[in-house]
């Protein structure tokens, strides 16, 4: 079974190797039916339509048209067989049928059959022959041939002459198949009876109906000349290269005449048997040199037959034939004929996508006409051979417009002549963009700085993303990515311009609340579907000095903090420590302390960085018992901000003195007790004055003194012990924020009006 399948495949391949041939008459009207291509290729019309069948002409013109729905091949342009092929037969118009999916090519031929649309034509309407009267009957004379461009039966078939008494005509055939006329003398001439014989010659073709052309033959009867010229050869055969220059010598013919005088002088001429010979060759009438009037072209005409006539002075003539064989040289470079070109190609096109279809043609023959085709340079394309001299330019790999946007593909065709000739054809292919690249940010993280309390609308910087695509696929737009639920709504702080990427603030920010924040920015292109990339935008809020220092100790709401310093305190004794903080950051939060005002400036000093209040020297008896200090706390912002702390310092000998100092302190909280003591002092002074004044009146004085004391006792409460708890002295600085250690507390009892002499410590109260 495999052997049978192989044989069948070989048979089918052999059948496909022979191109199908159809025929159509020349000058057929447009739309004329030629054949059904589908049947010839063994395909259905549905397959032709599905595989996008189309015709690729061999030349530059498309003479036929294919109906993909029916598979019919019809005439697209009228064709003149004589214009396309001249005298060549058969006249074939070749084309290729190209199918896709998969890519296949079939070569086909249409033969143009000749119609009789031309009549034979004589180049000269009058032919003059000079014939001596002594010419023997049976002598033959070569006549000028008529020209008929048709071929086959429609070409010239025979000649005839009108009725006359002296001549007959015979139709002869040349080696190339063309026919010519020979005039035969049937009866001897007699110049004295008839000096000139006139008759017509008619050339008739074989068409239906036949066409004909007529010329007039005028025979002039010459006086006797008994010797005719004789050529050295009846046939001259020469070969001439087609690249021979104009006026080059082809051959020299030679004839001789035995007569003497004018009858022996020979004049050479070319018998005009064709217009082509007349335009190509010329002869020197005296020397017989035949030269070229124009360069030869092997591709147009390969052989020439030239009839040369030698005539003597008496009018006698003879003929010879010159056969010129044109030798081909490699004078034609190959031609690259583009039949289909896709100048714009998507960069997403897969490998083996057809870009162009073209034919390579070389008019030379043999090795000079054999061609090869190649691409120059390294490019993602290759050439595929479809049929003889038919090629397809296809992609060889995937394309990337971002690397190379357009290609100048140079196709070079070279023949195998010596030297070889080549030609190059440049095909321009531009790639269309596909959205295959996402935008790319220039940085993964952008850091921008905005000042604290900066007004809204201020530009903070610019984001930048690039997209190597083109057009709308490269148009980048910027957006903020919404933050996850429950996180800081940083997107309300800044905005990003969708086109330029400019970042602007939306509202002022407080560094102390939001020192920095991050948002995610998305850059998306305009492709379909769009591609995007993300970057992190970090905004750092730059601190401004908008917060003054805040005192922690002493408390800012207290009028003054009381501190106790013993009079034996040495220099450097720690009195108190001022503690403050600043909500700003950096240099704006660096605090310094200085003594702004003091009762005795030289007694105390303040640590610049620590805020510790210490004695600058030892305390002396001359120093005031109560000292008031104002400490200035200042930050280093621009401009700087500050706060002040007030300290009340009491210099004491012992704790009784400390109580006395506290009780006379205007800042003390014992105002009701002080008022009571002042009233008692007033009454005592009044009593002493009365005793001095009324000493002699002792009874009266005694009575008055008794009455005064009674009045004083009535106003004062009975003496009773009064205990002061822990908080009673807090405002005076004992056991509160003073310099005594909070680890020791003392319980004391005082009686109203007892003064300081009855102030005693009973027992320490341990925590």
From TrEMBL:
Q: Please provide, alphabetically and separated by semicolons, the GO molecular function terms listed in this UniProt record.
A: calcium ion binding
State the superkingdom: Eukaryota
Q: Which GO terms describe its biological process?
A: homophilic cell adhesion via plasma membrane adhesion molecules
Task: Enumerate the SUPFAM superfamilies for this protein.
Answer: Cadherin-like (SSF49313)
Localisation: Cell membrane
Biological role stated in the UniProt entry: Potential calcium-dependent cell-adhesion protein. May be involved in the establishment and maintenance of specific neuronal connections in the brain.
Official protein name in the record: PCDBE protein
Name the species this protein comes from.
Rhipidura dahli
Instruction: Give the organism's phylogenetic lineage.
Output: Eukaryota, Metazoa, Chordata, Craniata, Vertebrata
